[in-house]
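Just curious. Invent one:
>
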Amino acid sequence: MLLQRLGVAAIVVLTEPFRSVVARMLEFQETDRPLPYIVLDHPMQNLGPDGVEARAQQLAAAAQRLLAGEDPNE
């Protein structure tokens, strides 16, 4: 994607219902390496404090796996 071509690190963060749409879109990207993405539980809006904390923990764990060279969505 354009950001990668400019040397800017970028990842896609989405929720489960959009996984297949994003996966199909990324099949057509023109880059030398795939744009990584992290899939979180749905929904992301109208969450109470506990829900926000759960999503933050989920995102942090996925980001750590991604930085370690692992699949962030395992």
Observations:
- The mean pLDDT is 89.
